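Exam prep: given the inputs below (a chain plus MIG), describe the expected output before reading on.
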Amino acid sequence: MIRKYCYGTPFETEAVTASISLSTQQPAFGSISLQDGFCFSLKLSPQAMVFGLGESNRGINKRGFLYISDCADDQNMSENRNSSYAAHNFILVSDDDTHTGLFFDYPGTVRFDIGFTRTDTMTVTCEQADLYLYVITGTSDLDVVRQFRQSIGRSYLPPKFAFGYGQSRFGYKTPEDFRTVVRKHRENHIPIDLLYMDIDYMDTYKDFTVNEEAFPAFDGFVREMQKDHIHLAPIIDAGVKIEKGYKVYEEGREKGYFCRRKDGSYFEATVWPGWSHFPDVLNKDARKWFGDQYDFLISKGIDAFWNDMNEPSIFFSRESIAKFKDYLHTYMEEDNPGIRHFQLMKELFSLANSHEDYQRFYHNADGRSVCHEQVHNLYGYNMTRAAGEAFERLSPHKRILLFSRSSYIGMHRYGGTWTGDNSTWWSHILLNLKMMPSLNMCGFLYAGADLGGFAGNTSRDLLLRWLALGVFTPLMRNHTASNTREQEVYQFEDIQDFRAVIEVRYRLIPYLYSEYMKAALGNDMMFKPLAFVYPKDPIARNTEDQLILGDEIMIAPVYTQNAIGRTVYLPEEMLFVKLSGSLITHREILPQGVHYVQVALNEVPLFIRRDRCIPLADPAECVPEIREESIVMLGYEGASYERYDDDGISPL
Ligand code: MIG
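Solution:
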């Protein structure tokens, strides 16, 4: 049962697609105050658990922390970060026998204080009391999620090749850089389907251009890669370079499709290309126009994209840098500037992504002028929506891989997401795992993290352990920053260990694709917390380093350094299996309870639930080479599995 409540004059985010009539009463759950903005508060019983919030920090159970929906480009995802790149305002309060979902459809900053200020109280606050609140009641946690998911529309369907392994690095520049990656993988028989092109493929970071000096024959290069079963996935950034003669800039200016200051002039800020404008993707016509630009690459054979910098990320604006200049001037005139050193650093670091800048520009939201600050969390969503809607026109017969860094609920219909700049930290393997079910609750099924870690230097064991989790996430991409240690798997000793782990991914693709599609088509979760599957089991309910994938398996990756294995909790009897390349290295029925399982660096552990089985193919070096005839069933004797499959490319 979904009830919809309206406060003030909400901005229509189009996150919810179902038509639900407005409730005239007040919600029977929690209490609402409209005294000072909007505040929802709820007493939390000691046993209540709170789930949701998609891409957010900390646990699967969100209790005990303050989460702020405020899409931000901040690379430092340490434990005390309150915000992330995305804003997913759906939470689920799970108490003894009540299961209540809450979706705060508010596109500005939302604060979720979930038992942080007071352990027994949850408050959700929005600065302005202009929003829709959806309250969903159901018979179980999963039931609530399914109802919510149904109301927000079907999740994005990627092509099947998007389940292949991908390699990325901020710093690949020339065709030779990419050819080397392909050659090294093919020579070493390490499976791969995707190569990601970061900003250096462009001509001076201009969207929808190619650096022609480096790529004199880009079409030919795309074809050459295709012959080797490689899909190239170029990046697209939100900011459009201000440059006379650059078509995207000229056209956008002429049509008035960029965001403007209050006085009507175009807002200018710097990002990678230098001074840039921001396409007004909240405007229908501008969105269509921006989406059409992707044809520049689609017409060259490109069928995969990632949208970046769309919080939107801003280094500094004309206004903020002028202010900083003044500040610097007075600072230098001081008798002892050293005394204000920390203040200076603060001023410098607060230049980027500042709310002062977000207050400086406006959208023409189909006739209504709206300050960006008020709708900040919708930018990445609508940039990706621009692309997704355009693909239906530009590529009506072929699905296109698309994922975005920033997002809001609603974007899940148009693309997937990656979790942004993480670090080469062991704790980020676990964070990656914990985000998966939360993202699924909010509609984001095609998701994954930068495997190996983006910032910092990875180590061989960290990369192997992280890949062993990445084997299960729909997006399986090794990505790293510039100036970090080389992170392609062939850079490390004993390449065969990496091959063994990545091959397991390909063996599981028939299963993973099937589970993905079932979840997308049935508004279901692909990754569930154990709490959702074993709600009456208190240990399972509080297990946050294992997940249920589909209905058949449990995953429990190793995420600590120098470990020979880990402790797992089995809520029921399961078949413990270890896979390594074409081998099944271990197979043992384990009874319900706690076990220490040993896992070598080249093994992928998984647990098959009682009386279930999964399809397992022979290893292949790319998705089209996975042999249907090689599929066997792995699991309990006599069990059966209904596998979903299709041609992996036709839109549904
Ligand atoms: O300011 O394009 O999250 O994946 O490699 C950094 C360069 C911009 C941030 C993305 C990252 C990408 C990088 N980008």
